[in-house]
């Protein structure tokens, strides 16, 4: 009896998981499908699901009209650069918080996280002015810095959680074994934290890649990443759903592929410490 | 060489003083055991010696050289942790090699010492395994191996056996004692288990609330505990401590009688009570006697073959020559 119940429950759970998964994925699926439709089919009512004339025309038009390569390159540089910059700053920060905490460490962590609750538009004006003064407007380095700062709390938190899981006694053992701080970091802590650092890197690349508010507001032409590329196909020129979808698909494809191949790493990273 | 001297050492965490001024000398080659209930500061004391915690005031010297400000890596001490603290991403061989690598010892010498340590600790077949693939006892051996190869001035053990099961603990206790005989290196061993302290130590340091209650050889502590705390802490089963009129007869506030110093009889004796529990160990029987009018429970250690059962009336007579007497402050009266 017990076995039958478990089996039944398993089927229900699996079905529910698939349903939720499909629900979440549906907008992306719809975008991808729409990118292969003609503009007329894209706005057809009732909408067509699969039975339409598949065409690559939209992709051709998008490639012709915009320099996809340049947007892609900007996205890679900005997402990658902000992530590396963030990790360089966050590793020592998370380190000191995890292994030499002070009375205020918990407060600092919460305070850092609280900055994520601030509506970004609230600081748009001062940051915009700063960017003008510093000549950072529409530059890749400017965006790298802003995106790094935005994601820094998350990077620090994630690394902090990872480092916390490493028993302090192991680091003390290394100290007793004659390792200097540098050797302790290189030979003991980093190898033990590599899975954590990797999933932090990955998550941050995804966050930075998808970030739209700052990338749209602080760039014009030179440093514009793929978010600006998508935006350029929206409203003012009329309803071009199919082309907009083609542009969106091209923008999300790289990150979707990266996410697909690293999903195991990503999931284990995000649930790290949750179950023990 | 490993003579360790602590002079007026104190340690405070914030406003809490965990170790009031403390003086202690551990001679070269000695096996010293710090023992006390949990929270007595014994691990903190060990960590101060290791350099993993900074002293608040006072000095620590190793072999006559002041080491108070010397970082742990440079003190020439090796430590074995309760959790073993092996490096999980390294093989057993690399774990043992790590301190030598840090010391810049050449590879040929490293391998020689690894082989020797592995042979001594029965680890030869496991050198290429990761710590995760070893049992608790094997992990503990690797931790000891890692400590040996450095040829340290002294070994520090922080409750190394408390994660092992009872049978393994007895075996490892012997191995560590043998290791001490063979290496003749100073060892400082922290435990809350007074049996470990009694069986292994040359010198036992009994601590309570950061204060040294008594220092001495196991038998000194057992035969002449300086106060009621040490009297109650050292020895298993515990010494019976009796207050009131019975103690007054001996001109003391408290008298202490070890369970094995009570003669039992079914017919007559100085004290009487009812057997509550009788624990048969085969070699001995422990009787827990209630309703004596002396203390909540009196423990008697007697022959393995006595047949007292729950509820039986029993008479007990203390051996007069081995009664310990303590004054109102709990201090020993000679």
UniProtKB/TrEMBL annotation, chain A:
* Gene3D superfamilies cross-referenced by the UniProt entry: MetI-like
Bilayer disposition of the protein: Multi-pass membrane protein
Q: Does the keyword Metal-binding apply?
A: no
Q: GO terms for CC?
A: plasma membrane
Where in the numbering of this chain does the ABC transmembrane type-1 domain appear? 72-262
Q: What family classification does the UniProt entry report for this protein? A: Belongs to the binding-protein-dependent transport system permease family.
Its Gene Ontology biological processes? transmembrane transport
Localization of this protein: Cell membrane
This protein's species is Actibacterium atlanticum
Keyword Ligase in annotation: no
**Main localisation:** membrane
> Where does the sequence pass through the membrane?
12-33, 71-96, 108-129, 141-163, 184-209, 240-261
State the protein's name.
ABC transporter permease
UniProt keyword list = Cell membrane, Membrane, Transmembrane, Transmembrane helix, Transport
Q: Which InterPro entries match?
A: BP-dep_ABC_trans_perm, MetI-like, MetI-like_sf
From TrEMBL, chain B:
Q: In this protein, which residues make up the domain named ABC transporter?
A: 4-234
Q: Which SMART domains match?
A: AAA
Q: Is-annotated flag, keyword Nucleotide-binding?
A: yes
Q: What's this protein's name?
A: ABC transporter
Q: What family is this protein classified in? A: Belongs to the ABC transporter superfamily.
Q: Which domain of life does the protein's organism represent?
A: Bacteria
Q: Which GO terms describe its cellular component?
A: ATP-binding cassette (ABC) transporter complex, substrate-binding subunit-containing; maltose transport complex
From which source organism is this entry? Actibacterium atlanticum
Q: Which SUPFAM superfamilies does this entry report, sorted A to Z? A: MOP-like, P-loop containing nucleoside triphosphate hydrolases
Which Gene Ontology terms cover its molecular function? ABC-type maltose transporter activity; ATP binding; ATP hydrolysis activity
Q: Give UniProt keywords alphabetically.
A: ATP-binding, Nucleotide-binding, Transport
- InterPro entries noted in UniProt: AAA+_ATPase, ABC_transporter-like_ATP-bd, ABC_transporter-like_CS, ABC_transpr_MalK-like, ABC_transpr_MalK/UgpC-like, Mo/tungstate-bd_C_term_dom, NA-bd_OB-fold, P-loop_NTPase
From the broadest rank down, the organism's phylogenetic lineage runs: Bacteria, Pseudomonadati, Pseudomonadota, Alphaproteobacteria, Rhodobacterales
